[in-house]
Write a structure and sequence with these properties.
With 1271 residues, this protein is mainly β. Among the domains are: 85 residues, Immunoglobulin-like (Sandwich); 87 residues, Sandwich (Immunoglobulin-like); 88 residues, Sandwich (Immunoglobulin-like); 92 residues, Immunoglobulins (Immunoglobulin-like), CATH 2.60.40.10; 83 residues, Immunoglobulins (Immunoglobulin-like, Sandwich); 85 residues, Sandwich (Immunoglobulin-like), CATH 2.60.40.10; 84 residues, Immunoglobulins (Immunoglobulin-like), CATH 2.60.40.10; 96 residues, Immunoglobulin-like (Sandwich). The protein has 5 helices and 93 strands. Keywords: Disulfide bond, Glycoprotein, Immunoglobulin domain, Membrane, Repeat, Signal, Transmembrane, Transmembrane helix.
């Protein structure tokens, strides 16, 4: 192509970037496969100075790779071969210097070479953030009112992104994303949004450190001028090497015209400036890669553009694609009737010509402008001369060297009577005992009805829509010679020629599987009873010979009887059926499944041990052990005639065999399996769903009604089952329906029609009310009760599971009024899940089915995750999306709310996640939400419940709470953690300090609590702090600051003293004054209480802690404790010291001795010396105390303490004379009494200190000496 693509063209390419990206989205070409580009980003362990240590990461977008390559300035290369294939690798750069600054890109290895490079990362000098890159992504074309996304990549995480527009000093938008990229959205685009944009980044903690601005990007709004027209000369279909002219014409002169190819917007952008109102874009030598969708537009010198032209498809090919031809209503036409020949192909904008074999010229033409979905070649009043083979070809009005390929043909037959069909028997023409034979009447074109005749019985005649007739041989009445014929819809009164006769032979008899089981059980019980009788007779005979007592005989007979009864019951259990499994087919040839077919069998019971596949009901094909997914595969390979037949499977457990699965019928080597159609009971005026089970995934479905040749409904690939809906069932919808499946791509390969399903509307009672008493989402082992009720009296009820009857409840005549039935599952198992419903009936009239209840049994699959988008806090009247992310694909998801009995929403998806939209939420929508996912084909086995997610509907965030741990009063040099907590989860927190412009730290939204640690605290950390929520999404919800917390640092001033007035203990209701006194004037004091994290009064700290003071508020002091030292037993010559201890200081103690009316001793320190002279020290003692400030208030007495021992003789010496039983006081010129200082537990119990220690020891020596001498 000879076009200028430099200069202004390069500028326009960047100017219209947004336009180009929008075009692809507007044309629905999101499926265009682009060369995957790797992602490059930076990580650093220095968040405030990332250039200190840089690591570059390169990630493959969609596949694992064995090699990664890092490019620098297009010259230096570093490649890494990891030890195993991975998605991403790291390249260590280290500290950024002048030598390693430059332009970086990365690639990954994909066969047969390296991938497309990543976007260019520019690392500048140390101390600077990397320069961000800037591009635009559009959701719709950039017309007024559309939406545009501007993307800014900052290379680093946790950056603040700013969007600037030329002419504005302040940023027009900013974001703080969690990743490396920010998305700025411009909604409802207007001409005022045009302009030049740039983006910059800065570190959150350092708002003064900015990156260099990104390259400017100009946004142009299109659609200000009318759209031009784009035409191709000589035509839109050309051969490689030929030339082509594309003409873009508009209504305005002097404009610049631009042409682009949608499949490669960035490389296929061409422009021309002319003085006329049109421009020609010339392709000198076309190539295959020039094929694509082209469009054009024009713009003025201010870059204001027009609307886009219509898309023009250009084909560059050396061979035309094939066309296909179809005769309607049938290729067999009766003389004098009409027939339409439909010709279609993938090339648009080209005429079509109809050819007949043996003739050179076309029979008919269709112009390119007249072709639509309803246009066809029409043959009127056909005769025998119209018989022949027809084909259609493209009709070109210009010269080209493109070759015309061979096309499919249709053979048209004109007859006076339709040709005879073929008749076959399946599985054979010989009857087997208990088996029926299916006679199949077949013809290659659609028919209205088939008829079967029996030569031995002239009055015998059967009719069928699909041509299948089931013949049984009960009493030998099925053998004989049969033939069939048919009639078509266009001539319903004319029957075809009869088929060749077919003779059926075989023995008489009719035997069923249930009959065999019943007979086997009955025979087993008879054998057991006969054996039991023989054993009893044998025991009786032995007893007569040995003369054993009758009691032994009776006990033995009872034991044997029980043994055989248990054996009989076990024989019955062996044939008790379990839930039937599911059978389906899979293939790796979606266009020709019969080339390699595998049958799969899956059981809803987790205790299944083995699967068995059966053909034609009796032939054992193979057995397979059950896998972890409780399923097994039976590969059939390429289908042959030996594979034709009806297949079903069973699942085996230890003592039970399942019911057979639905039968899968293989009819031939090049035809799809025969589908199965089913529906609920038709109800007048209500919606009806018809289910077509096609066995294979990825097939298309078609629904037919008897009497209509064309499908009444068609569906694309929707899985192995399709649901056709009749919106409102009326009389006109009654009739016989069938369905067929076909391959997804043309030419279609069809299955045989399913067995017909007759829909007849019957008069019915209204549907009952059906529910579970608890939630239908239950855990294994739970108890579930279904309640089915109706206002009608004396009704019987039926419970259904997945359409099959499982339980019933007969009518009750005893209780008048409304009828109700309760169906109970005592302990729910994994196989009990499913869709339940109920109906009621009287003698002849049934009700409509109830609304179904989906019973989901959880805890089978891993739990999903539930997230709120954009966030868990929603403004009233807005909407929020709850995304439930599961583990497996193709599941059904349910959203639950705490307090709601039934799930709020259900959603079936093909992927592994579902989005639940809550519209215009209100205060009542606040609460805890959770979700589950479950499979619908296997008893609704579900996952564990997700972790609950709290949704807040409010216009103001709830206020968080800020507190310090361990306390807000911290000694200097210690550590403290400030915790910001609130009820909203999944939202970040930010911490503020008064008189500082920026926030200190940010805690991400991955935690429920924000922890802000402060280590090695100093005076600079003192101050008043607060915190608030920091959502990572844009919202108009108001944010409230938390409470203000003052952080106090102690250890800066001398320690004060603390006193209580009138004393440390007061009665309830009285006042107390705590006096804190320091050494420095103009000081502020803070009162603290032990065990609390905050001061009683918030003040600025200026001193150390004072000594602690214990405060008691009580109407009566607590009782003291009383102990004896060294023990409670007197020894000869030894005294005992009783120690009375209380919790309060400033008290006076008193010791009491049982039998003495007056108190024995008083003491201020609580120590009392007791001797046992003449046995007067023996007895029970107790003590109490009183406050010196309140002498009238006495404490409770202590627990009594008993002293025991032998009496001691009267002491002779003055030194050893016992002290009088009264308070020890100091006399003038007398040594002061010793002071007993009590030490903590584990050390000495007391220590005696005095000014006259020698005197005290001297007086003690005679005692010690006498004791030693006595010993």
């Amino acid at each position: 192509m000879t076009l200028d693509r430099r200069g202004e063209g390069a500028t326009m390419l960047k100017t219209f970037t947004v336009l180009l990206f929008c075009i692809r989205m507007s044309l629905g070409m999101t499926s265009i496969v682009m060369d995957p580009q790797p992602e490059l980003w930076i990580e650093s362990n220095y968040p405030q100075a990332p250039w200190e240590n840089i690591t570059l990461w390169c990630r493959s977008p969609s596949r694992i790779s064995s090699k990664f390559l890092l490019l620098k300035d297009k010259t230096q290369m570093t490649w890494i071969r990891p030890s195993h294939k991975t998605f991403q690798v790291s390249f260590l750069i280290g500290a950024l210097t002048e030598s390693n600054a430059g332009l970086y890109r990365c690639c990954y290895w994909k066969e047969p070479g390296w991938s497309k490079p990543s976007k260019v990362l520019e690392l500048e000098a140390p101390g600077q953030l990397p320069k961000p890159i800037f591009w635009i992504q559009a959701e719709t074309p950039p017309l007024p009112g559309c939406n545009v996304n501007i993307l800014c990549h900052g290379w680093l995480q946790d950056l603040v992104f700013m969007l600037f527009k030329e002419g504005y000093a302040e940023p027009v938008d900013y974001q703080v994303p969690t990743g490396t990229m920010a998305i700025f959205s411009i909604d409802n685009l207007t001409p005022e949004d045009e302009g030049v944009y740039i983006c910059r980044t800065h570190i959150q903690m350092l708002p003064t450190l900015w990156s260099e601005p990104s390259n400017p990007l100009k946004l142009v709004v299109a659609g200000l001028y009318p759209k031009p027209t784009l035409t191709a000369h000589p035509g839109p279909i050309m051969a490689p090497g030929e030339s082509l002219n594309l003409r873009c014409q508009g209504p305005i002169y002097g404009m610049t015209f631009a042409l682009m190819r949608v499949e490669d917007l960035e490389k296929s952008f061409y422009h021309k400036k002319t003085i006329k109102n049109e421009a020609y874009f010339f392709f000198r030598s076309l190539k295959i890669q020039d094929t694509g969708h082209y469009l054009c537009f024009y713009y003025d010198i201010s870059y204001r553009g027009s609307l886009l032209s219509d898309v023009l498809k250009i084909w560059v090919t050396d061979t035309f694609p094939k066309t296909w031809l179809l005769a309607w209503p049938s290729p067999v036409v009766q003389m004098g009737q009409n027939v339409s020949l439909w010709c279609r192909g993938p090339v648009d904008g080209v005429g079509l010509a109809l050819y007949k074999k043996g003739e050179d010229k076309p029979v008919q033409f269709l112009d390119a402008t007249s072709i639509d979905d309803n246009t066809s070649f029409f043959l009127n009043n056909v005769t025998y001369s119209d018989t022949g083979i027809y084909s259609c070809q493209y009709l070109l009005t210009w010269k080209t060297s493109i070759r015309m390929p061979s096309h499919n043909t249709v053979e048209l037959m004109v007859v006076d009577k339709p040709p005879k069909p073929s008749l076959s028997a399946w599985p054979s023409t010989v009857f087997k005992l208990g088996k029926a034979i299916t006679l199949r009447c077949r013809v290659s074109h659609p028919v209205l009805e088939f008829s079967l005749e029996w030569e031995e019985r002239e009055a015998f005649q059967k009719f069928s829509v699909d041509g299948d007739f089931i013949i049984s041989n009960v009493d030998g009445k099925g053998t004989g010679t049969y033939s069939c014929s048919y009639r078509v819809e266009t001539h319903p009164n004319i029957w075809s020629h009869r088929s060749e006769p077919l003779k059926l032979m075989g023995p008489a008899g009719y035997l069923t599987w249930n009959y065999v089981l019943n007979e086997a059980v009955r025979l087993s019980l008879i054998v057991q009873l006969v054996a039991l009788l023989l054993v009893v007779l044998w025991i009786r005979w032995k007893c007569r010979r040995l003369r054993i007592r009758e009691a032994w005989l009776l006990g033995t007979a009872q034991g044997v009887t029980m043994l055989f009864i248990v054996t009989a019951l076990l024989s019955c259990e062996i044939v008790m059926p379990t839930p039937k499994p599911e059978l389906w087919a899979e293939t790796n040839f979606p266009l020709a499944p019969w080339k390699n077919l595998t049958l799969w069998c899956r059981s809803p019971s987790g205790s299944t041990k083995e699967f068995v596949l059966l053909k034609d009901g009796t032939g054992w094909i193979a057995t397979r052990p059950a896998s972890e997914q409780v399923r097994a595969a039976f590969p059939l390979g390429a289908l042959t005639q030996s594979h034709t037949g009806s297949y079903h499977c069973h699942s085996w457990e230890e003592m039970a065999v399942s019911e057979p699965s639905e039968a899968l019928e293989l009819l031939g080597t090049d035809i799809l399996p025969k589908p199965v159609i089913s529906a609920s009971l038709p109800i007048r005026g209500q919606e009806l769903q018809l289910r077509c089970k096609g066995w294979l995934a990825g097939m298309g479905f078609a629904l037919y009604k008897e009497g209509q040749q064309e499908p009444v409904q068609q569906l694309g690939a929707v899985g192995r089952e399709a649901v056709f809906t009749i919106q409102r069932m009326e009389d006109k919808d009654e009739g016989n329906y069938s369905c067929r499946t076909h391959t997804e791509q043309r030419p279609f390969k069809w299955s045989e029609p399913s067995e017909p399903l007759e829909l007849v509307i019957k008069e019915m009672y209204p549907k009952p009310f059906f529910k579970t008493w608890a939630s239908p989402v239950v855990t294994p082992g739970a108890r579930v009760t279904f309640n089915c009720s109706t206002p009608h009296q004396h009704m019987s009820f039926i419970l259904y599971k997945d359409g099959s009857e499982i339980a019933s409840s007969d009518r009750s005549w005893a209780s008048p009024g409304a009828s109700a039935a309760h169906f109970l599952i005592i302990s729910v198992g994994i196989g009990d899940g499913g869709n339940y419903s109920c109906r009621y009936y009287d003698f002849s009239i049934w009700s409509e089915p109830s609304d179904p209840v989906e019973l989901v049994v959880t805890e089978f699959y891993p739990k999903p995750t539930l997230l709120a988008q954009p966030g868990p806090v929603v403004f009233p009247g807005k909407s929020v999306t709850l995304r439930c992310q599961g583990t497996f694909q193709g599941m059904r998801f349910a959203l639950l709310q705490e307090g709601a009995q039934v799930p709020l929403q259900f959603q079936s998806v093909s992927g592994n996640s579902a989005d639940f939209l809550l519209h215009t939420v209100g205060a009542e929508d606040s609460g805890n939400y959770s979700c589950i996912y479950y499979e619908t084909t296997m008893s609704n086995r579900g996952s564990y419940l997700s972790i609950p997610l709290m949704i807040w509907v409010t216009d103001t965030f709830p206020k968080p709470w800020l507190f310090a741990e361990p306390s807000s009063v911290v000694p200097m040099g210690q550590n403290v953690t400030l915790w910001c907590r609130g009820p909203v989860h999944g939202v970040g927190y930010i911490l503020h300090k008064e008189e500082e412009a920026t926030s200190m730290q940010l805690w991400g939204s991955t935690s429920n609590d924000g922890a802000f640690p402060i280590t090695n605290i100093s005076g600079a950390s003192m101050g008043r702090y607060s915190c608030c929520y920091h959502p990572d999404w844009t919202s108009s919800i108001k944010i409230q600051p938390s409470n203000t917390l003052e952080l106090i640092v102690t250890g800066l001033l001398p320690k004060p003293s603390l006193l209580a007035q009138p004393g440390p203990m007061v009665s309830p209701g009285e006042n107390m004054t705590l006096q804190c006194q320091g050494e420095l004037p103009d000081s502020t004091f803070v009162l603290l209480k032990e065990g609390t994290q905050e001061p009683l009064e918030q003040q600025r700290p200026t001193s150390n802690h004072s000594d602690s003071l214990e405060i008691w508020v009580t109407d009566k002091p607590p009782k003291p404790s009383l102990s004896a030292w060294p023990g409670t037993m007197f020894k000869l010559g030894k005294d005992i010291i009783l120690q009375c201890r209380g919790p309060l200081p400033g008290v006076e103690f008193v010791l009491e001795h049982d039998g003495e009316e007056a108190p024995q001793q008083f003491s201020e320190d609580g120590d009392f010396v007791i001797n046992n002279v003449e046995g007067k020290g023996i007895g029970n003692y107790s003590c109490s105390y009183r406050l010196q400030a309140y002498p009238d208030i006495w404490s409770e007495p202590s627990d009594s303490l008993e002293l025991v021992g032998a009496a001691e003789a009267q002491r002779q010496t003055e030194e050893t004379r016992p002290l009088p039983l009264k308070s020890v006081t100091k006399k003038e010129n007398q040594a002061p009494p010793p002071i007993l200082l009590h030490q903590p537990l584990g050390e000495s119990l007391w220590n005696c200190q005095s000014q006259y220690n020698n005197l005290l020891l001297y007086k003690s020596f005679p005692l010690l000496y006498l004791a030693f001498r006595d010993l």
